[in-house]
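Dear Dr. L.,

I hope this message finds you well. Following up on our conversation about the binding site, I have prepared a predicted three-dimensional model of the protein together with 1,3-dihydroxyacetonephosphate. For your records, I am including the exact sequence and ligand specification that went into the calculation, followed by the structure tokens. Please feel free to forward this to your student if that is useful.
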Amino acid sequence: MSPEAAVPSMPLPTAIPDRKTVDPHIDVEAEIDRLRKERNAVILAHYYQDGVIQDLADYVGDSLGLSQQAAKTDADVIAFCGVHFMAETAKILNPNKTVVMPDLDAGCSLADRCPPDLFAKWLEQYPDHLVVSYINTSAAIKALSHIICTSSNAVRVVGSLPSDAKIVFAPDRHLGRWVMKNTGRDMVLWPGFCVVHEQFTARKMLQLKAANPRAQLIAHPECEQAVLDMADFIGSTTGLIEHVVNSEHDEFIVATEMGVTHQMMARRPGVKILCAPPESGCQCATCPYMRLNTTEKLYLALRDLEPQVDVPADIRERALLPVQRMLDLG
Ligand code: 13P
Ligand code: SF4
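The resulting structure of the complex is given below.
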């Protein structure tokens, strides 16, 4: 059976009310600060988090930067403001540390639509292939992989494999296609996609470009090929932010989750940023999973040291080598 036919369509998470209530008189940000010291905790946040969380964090970054930070932290507690696969990667690298998330339901459409049992069955067709998995996968998928990559190092990771290696790439088909174009390598692609980036269409981008002729279109490689073909620059969240900060241009159409604009505007005040609107008619794109995290939930996570992220030992041990291979590439 092809994975397209078998992968269930996952419902998007709806707004889940906070399970615990927070006294409204508490200064949540001051309490987070107090607890982070008391617990010897480090707060890691992805660029798709709300600006308030980004500003509170000890480190804000893309998936690669966050895993590099997780690999070298000497904190006892890692409070991960991102999605589940990111916190899981931190746990794989730090089995003896406590890893908490503000909301354990913060998943990822790419990771959720690549179930390990189906993936393992699908891989049986490619026994002589090396498996390259995007970091946006569960620990169980990582355990089935040769090496992990992120959007910022995928071209380098695939380029590092022997030139005669046959390669399976999972789970993002758009990132996979973009990597094939940039490496000249042929790869078998799992047909996954991100529900946020798939909503950007070339039609909308053309309209925006026509209305804003001075603006550069910059896009994350999870966007579909027709959008990437039009883009002036393609990069990971860090790559997109650095491009805006260092560019001679001063207007940008940004085709990724709108959280990145927080750093763009903070680091280059006055720059004109247009969030690429999804085809749905909304004015900006937000990741429904990332947005489950709030400062109140971060406070509760640090206070109660839950919810914790755990990975079964057998999976964790098998997932470590592919993650380490990626980190060793620098
Ligand atoms: P980055 O690694 O570029 O931060 O991307 C993570 C992600 O989930 C993109 O949707
Ligand atoms: Fe996953 Fe897409 Fe959200 Fe990134 S934006 S975490 S790929 S659902």
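In brief: The chain has a mean pLDDT of 94.

With kind regards,
A. P.
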